[in-house]
């Protein structure tokens, strides 16, 4: 506490003053941005911190947590928590929240948008018109998505919304998950079987040690020379080296990626290719959704500071 106000340490880069959560945190407490504190200030503040704020693309390790002995909760501005040491959070008896559901519509929109951009070569079409080539050349034909088989790897909150949208586009839906769901779509035991069946594979599975490079050479081979890959999950799900090789050799037709293994660095091999569409991790990046995510984190912080169970605890952390 500082002057009776909770102390919040924020790990999210503070360079964007319009960040919807960073703007609102002062409503609750005294905010200290990690990237603006020198070591002396950090050593003074950290032992008294009540709340630690981070995001799914940042690391919250056991070592990081050891700086905050008075901590009551950790907030994740995002749904994925692959950067968080969940077992260390649980062992320390901390509450931790994330932002499920509120972003599912936007991420599903981006998945379908990327698939359409890929199938209809929208970035190339835009460049073609701007370059003044339209009067003299024919733009190559694209591929139809209506009637195609869409494989959804991960039929969780986001995957189900992708499936609903795909049905509106009259795609045939198949999926894989850890277990079959009560849905009218075909279930595949493995992602390789799903890839062999579908024309386009959308990946929306959390990054965990088990899912690292789930989309490997074998899966890409199964997807085949007419197959499209869309990754809106995490870069770690895809073996990038194998993907670049498959794209170069045209053993798959194309890929659309919102996430990368070493983001914000994008492998040079991907940047050179024409059969890819690239986005800078913008799945949830709309004004409305980022506001809703901020609101949800704020609600969880208030609950934690009142000693109440969180609205959206990270699975595996305390629920009481
Ligand atoms: P979710 O509701 O937890 O769904 C995850 C799905 O993945 C579930 O269907 C789960 O199967 C399946 N799954 C988990 N491990 C698996 C495995 N080893 N093999 C096969 N399937 C597996 O999560 P969500 O809210 O949909 O979010 C999914 C992920 O999307 C997040 O973790 C995050 O990494 C990513 N994401 C990206 C963006 C972006 O900006 N691009 C934004 C938001 C989220 P069961 O249902 O059988 O357990």
From TrEMBL:
What's the superkingdom here?
Bacteria
Keyword Cell membrane attributed: no
Where is the D-isomer specific 2-hydroxyacid dehydrogenase NAD-binding domain positioned along the sequence?
A: 112-283
Q: What Pfam families does its record include? A: 2-Hacid_dh (PF00389), 2-Hacid_dh_C (PF02826)
Q: Which GO terms describe its cellular component?
A: cytosol
Alphabetized, the UniProt keywords read: NAD, NADP, Oxidoreductase
Q: Which GO terms describe its molecular function?
A: glyoxylate reductase (NADPH) activity; hydroxypyruvate reductase [NAD(P)H] activity; NAD binding
Checking InterPro entries in the record gives: D-isomer_2-hydroxyacid_DH, D-isomer_2_OHA_DH_cat_dom, D-isomer_DH_NAD-bd, NAD(P)-bd_dom_sf
D-isomer specific 2-hydroxyacid dehydrogenase catalytic domain location, by residue? 31-313
Name the PANTHER family on file.
Answer: 2-HYDROXYACID DEHYDROGENASE YGL185C-RELATED (PTHR10996:SF178), 2-HYDROXYACID DEHYDROGENASE-RELATED (PTHR10996)
Q: Which family does it belong to?
A: Belongs to the D-isomer specific 2-hydroxyacid dehydrogenase family.
Q: What is this protein called?
A: 2-hydroxyacid dehydrogenase
Query: Which organism was this protein described from?
Result: Sutterella seckii
Lineage per the UniProt record: Bacteria, Pseudomonadati, Pseudomonadota, Betaproteobacteria, Burkholderiales
């Amino acid at each position: 506490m500082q002057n009776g106000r909770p102390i919040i340490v924020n790990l999210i880069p503070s360079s964007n003053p319009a960040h919807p959560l960073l703007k609102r945190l002062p409503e609750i407490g005294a905010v200290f941005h990690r990237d603006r504190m020198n070591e002396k200030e950090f050593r003074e503040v950290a032992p008294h911190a009540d709340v630690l704020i981070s995001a799914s693309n940042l690391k919250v390790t056991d070592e990081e947590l050891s700086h905050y002995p008075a901590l009551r909760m950790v907030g994740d501005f995002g749904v994925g928590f692959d950067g968080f040491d969940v077992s260390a959070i649980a062992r320390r008896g901390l509450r931790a929240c994330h932002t499920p559901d509120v972003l599912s519509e936007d991420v599903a929109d981006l998945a379908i948008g990327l698939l359409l951009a890929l199938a209809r070569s929208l970035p190339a079409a835009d460049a073609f018109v701007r370059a003044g080539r339209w009067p003299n050349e024919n733009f190559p034909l694209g591929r139809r998505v209506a009637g195609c088989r869409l494989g959804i790897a991960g039929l969780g909150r986001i995957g189900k919304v992708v499936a609903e949208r795909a049905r509106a586009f009259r795609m045939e839906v198949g999926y894989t998950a850890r277990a079959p769901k009560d849905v009218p779509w075909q279930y595949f035991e493995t992602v390789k079987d799903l890839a062999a069946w579908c024309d386009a594979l959308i990946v929306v599975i959390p990054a965990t040690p088990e899912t690292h490079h789930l989309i490997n050479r074998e899966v890409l081979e199964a997807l085949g020379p007419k197959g499209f890959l869309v990754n809106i999950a995490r870069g770690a799900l895809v073996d990038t080296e194998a993907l670049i090789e498959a794209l170069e050799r045209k053993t798959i037709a194309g890929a659309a990626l919102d996430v990368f293994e070493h983001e914000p660095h994008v492998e040079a091999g991907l940047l050179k290719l024409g059969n890819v569409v690239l986005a800078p991790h913008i799945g949830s990046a709309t004004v409305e959704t980022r506001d809703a995510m901020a609101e949800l984190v704020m609600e969880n912080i208030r609950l934690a500071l009142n000693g109440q169970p969180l609205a959206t605890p990270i699975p595996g952390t305390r629920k009481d």
